Amino acid sequence: FIAVLPGSPEELLVNIARENNASIFDCEGHSVYHSVPAQFKTWDTGDSTLVNTAAFLQVWQQVKNEGAYLDYDWTAKVDADCVFMPHRLQGKIAYLKAPANQALYLHNTMTRFMDGAFLGALEVTSKLATTKYIDNLQACTSTIGT
């Protein structure tokens, strides 16, 4: 699925992907969810960070409400500006010989940059991992904040 901020340039990227059956539109199933604007937080150092936890929790709630993820073994959250080739992901998953009925999150970012978080233009989870994550959205909100 893709989360898109309405009125943003992401909408054009999603339309181009849709017209070309590219990105998520080349998957067995796909959904486009609307996001909400995220805020920037400025630290004491003067550095800024995008604080988008609340926006993504809201998107994951939409994923839960729709329930389509239950029809597939894997869920991929793809940024609109991500070059995503589903057939390559399918090949990687087959190569991993991932055990069925396991909660798995495929890292695509070096661990030292992740700090234990979902991070990146592509996030891939098994059905059980997606279910566990979605079932615990409220705990995430209270634990990591928004």
Protein described:
The protein is α+β, with helices and mostly antiparallel strands and about 150 residues long. The protein has 6 helices and 7 strands; from the N terminus they run βαβββαβαβαβαα. The protein has helices at about 10-20, 55-65, 85-95, 110-115, 125-135, 135-145; strands spanning about 1-5, 30-35, 40, 50, 75-80, 105, 120-125. Strands 5-7-6 form a 3-stranded antiparallel β-sheet. β1, α1 and β2 (about 30-35) form a beta-alpha-beta unit. The longest helix has 14 residues, at about 55-65. The radius of gyration is 16 Å and the shape is globular. The two termini are about 20 Å apart. The mean pLDDT is about 85.
Mean pLDDT, all residues: 86
Gross geometry = globular
State Rg.
16 Å
Trace the largest sheet across and list its strands. Answer: 5-7-6
Content-based structural category: alpha+beta
Helicity, as a percent range: 25-40%
Strand content: 15-25%
- Series of H and E elements: EHEEEHEHEHEHH
Question: Quaternary state, please?
Answer: single chain
The main β sheet shows up as: 3 strands, antiparallel
**First and last CA, distance:** 22 Å
Q: State the low-pLDDT regions, or none.
A: none
Number of extended strands: 7
User: So how many helices?
Assistant: 6
